[in-house]
């Protein structure tokens, strides 16, 4: 049987942010059946050489990505292409992909994220599975609705061009994957694509386990925790909303409560939120200590697509979670987390969880049980075997 070429817009290790968590587990799953060749971008110098990937890949072509947003925007306007594509358009990556295809017996190509679909060869005979994860064009359309002036025009343009590209890619590939049934359904309705399937995110419940070995974090008072990549716009908007509109009302009932924003690369807008009752940690070695210390974990995202890893991680750690309706969508959460559509709803949910610790603990226990039963990675990725031709290989081996 032939090999797999795995194209990723970020090196899928370490699995410490949403996209890298999903791509790493996809990669590891495939490596259990086939030789896998990885071609990926590194936007962190530490990702240029990750020796851990040698155990799950037959070869690796890692290209450093340093193109600025301004350059990508200019190239987009000149070429008429989405910024999302010009930002990842790189001659070195094109050469790397061509070399792998010429050198190896590639039977299947898995493309992770729409940015990498531009590297698909026009005449390939390989089976192609496209993991869009989320419908990025819909995300930019939502951004455009909330923007004003030139930025509104730019975001609307991005949504329009990216939607056209997504539909063209879906028409070429053998299967298009999304992280939730809702996202897959939206894509079908919008594009008319037929070979569309949901493969949900999972969670490593042995790693995210309150009984696992990790360094504890000391917490004074009631700690409310948010985790995420803090240069990601929806996360910035979420913590800003919580710190300004929700936390003061929670502290009216619980003046000891503090809010911890835990995640790498906080920009000036996030750092400006820091105060005696708002902690901005920056990058931490292990998020589990902060989750374990949380009286409540919050996910107040106004814009969220698919399954939120931050919510699954908190659930797996048996923490009580208060999430926005957007953050909870796509997760089988009934009876396991508190959900609110408005600031008032989230104030009520967080206040209740801080006031009734027994109920909060019970909710956390139910959440962990749900994650164990529903979101193990092996179960979530099982449908991938048929799509990638892995079941045929297993049958021949038998």
UniProtKB/TrEMBL annotation:
Q: Which organism is it from?
A: Sphingomonas agrestis
Which InterPro entries does the record match to this protein?
Answer: Sugar_tfrase_PEP-CTERM_Stp1
Instruction: Report the transmembrane regions from the record.
Output: none
Q: Which domain of life is it from?
A: Bacteria
Q: What is this protein called?
A: TIGR03087 family PEP-CTERM/XrtA system glycosyltransferase
| Family annotation (Pfam families) | Glyco_trans_1_4
């Amino acid at each position: 049987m032939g090999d797999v070429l795995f194209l990723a817009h970020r090196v899928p290790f370490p699995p410490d942010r949403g996209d890298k968590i999903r791509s790493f587990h996809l990669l590891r799953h495939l490596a259990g059946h086939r030789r896998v060749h990885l071609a990926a971008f590194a936007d962190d110098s530490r990702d240029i050489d990750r020796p851990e990937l040698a155990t799950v890949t037959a070869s690796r072509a890692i290209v450093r990505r340093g193109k600025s947003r301004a350059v990508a925007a200019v190239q987009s306007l000149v070429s008429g292409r989405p910024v999302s594509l010009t930002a990842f358009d790189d001659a070195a990556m094109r050469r790397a992909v061509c070399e792998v295809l010429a050198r190896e017996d590639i039977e299947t190509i898995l493309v992770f994220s729409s940015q990498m679909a531009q590297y698909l060869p026009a005449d390939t005979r390989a089976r192609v599975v496209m993991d869009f994860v989320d419908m990025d064009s819909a995300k930019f359309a939502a951004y455009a609705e909330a923007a004003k002036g030139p930025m509104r025009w730019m975001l609307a343009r991005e949504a329009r061009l990216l939607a056209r590209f997504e539909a063209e890619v879906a028409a070429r590939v053998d299967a298009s994957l999304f992280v939730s049934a809702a996202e897959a359904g939206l894509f079908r309705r919008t594009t008319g694509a037929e070979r569309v399937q949901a493969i949900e995110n999972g969670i490593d419940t042995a790693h995210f386990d309150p009984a696992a070995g990790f360094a504890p974090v000391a917490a004074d008072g009631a700690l409310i925790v948010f985790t995420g990549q803090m240069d990601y716009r929806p996360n910035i908007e979420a913590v800003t909303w919580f710190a300004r509109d929700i936390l003061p009302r929670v502290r009216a009932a619980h003046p000891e409560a503090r809010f911890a924003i835990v995640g790498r690369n906080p920009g000036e807008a996030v750092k400006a939120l820091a105060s005696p009752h708002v902690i901005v940690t920056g990058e931490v070695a292990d998020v589990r200590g902060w989750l374990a210390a949380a009286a409540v974990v919050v996910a107040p995202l106004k814009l969220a697509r698919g399954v939120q890893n931050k919510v699954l991680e908190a659930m797996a750690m048996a923490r009580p979670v208060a999430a926005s309706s957007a953050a909870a969508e796509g997760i089988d959460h009934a009876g396991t987390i508190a959900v609110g559509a408005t600031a008032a709803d989230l104030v009520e949910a967080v206040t209740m969880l801080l006031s009734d610790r027994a109920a909060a603990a019970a909710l956390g226990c139910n959440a962990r049980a749900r994650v164990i039963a529903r979101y193990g990675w092996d179960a979530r990725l099982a449908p991938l075997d048929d799509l990638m031709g892995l079941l045929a290989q297993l049958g021949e081996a038998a």
